[in-house]
């Protein structure tokens, strides 16, 4: 991911770091760190305090409870949009991920960096195989979308912003930096219009 540095304007920025979150990241040890060990995440991630332990304290997720996918017969693939807005005073890294069936969806930019007050819209479409199953059965097994965030200690450098759109950092982030995730239920249905609907 990155480490803190100084820009020409005097502002602290997080620079790319070719270890923890590089495109071929090293696997971090699962063993507890000794007192002599240095936490490699402490220089660029901020731990949530008691008042911001949940994702909801840092970000607004819309819709907040349910995302609907309605497939019309002889129509295009259904798509829904999930919006994440940063309501904190820090830059955040966010990720939107299905809880159970990742292969069911095609997602555009499901993770990235947001400055204070900024929003990102994540477009989510059903994959062709999921559409076929939905048409056959009329519904799909229940699923949720999990929205996760972590706080950055300083505004990230542009190279890091680009990196965090593709690198999956979440398996490496220790629990003390994670906010309690926000869950949005996915709802699936089909609809065949009749003459009165046209």
Automatic annotation (TrEMBL):
Q: Where is the MSP domain?
A: 58-198
Q: Which residues form the signal peptide?
A: none
Task: Name the Pfam families on file.
Answer: Motile_Sperm
Q: Name the domain of life this protein comes from.
A: Eukaryota
Q: What is this protein called?
A: MSP domain-containing protein
Look up and give the organism this protein is from: Aphanomyces euteiches
């Amino acid at each position: 991911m990155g480490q803190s540095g100084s820009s020409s304007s005097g502002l602290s920025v997080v620079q790319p770091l070719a270890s923890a979150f590089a495109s071929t990241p090293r696997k971090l040890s699962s063993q507890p760190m000794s007192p002599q060990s240095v936490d490699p995440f402490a220089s660029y991630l901020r731990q949530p305090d008691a008042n911001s332990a949940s994702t909801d304290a840092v970000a607004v997720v819309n819709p907040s409870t349910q995302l609907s996918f309605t497939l019309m017969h002889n129509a295009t693939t259904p798509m829904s949009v999930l919006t994440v807005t940063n309501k904190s005073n820090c830059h955040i890294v966010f990720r939107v991920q299905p809880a159970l069936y990742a292969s069911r969806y095609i997602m555009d930019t499901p993770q990235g960096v947001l400055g204070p007050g900024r929003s990102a819209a994540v477009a989510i479409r059903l994959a062709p195989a999921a559409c076929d199953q939905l048409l056959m059965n009329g519904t799909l097994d229940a699923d949720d979308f999990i929205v996760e965030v972590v706080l950055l200690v300083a505004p990230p450098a542009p190279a890091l912003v680009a990196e965090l759109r593709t690198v999956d950092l979440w398996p490496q982030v220790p629990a003390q930096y994670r906010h309690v995730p926000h869950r949005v239920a996915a709802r699936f249905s089909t609809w065949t219009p009749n003459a009165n609907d046209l």
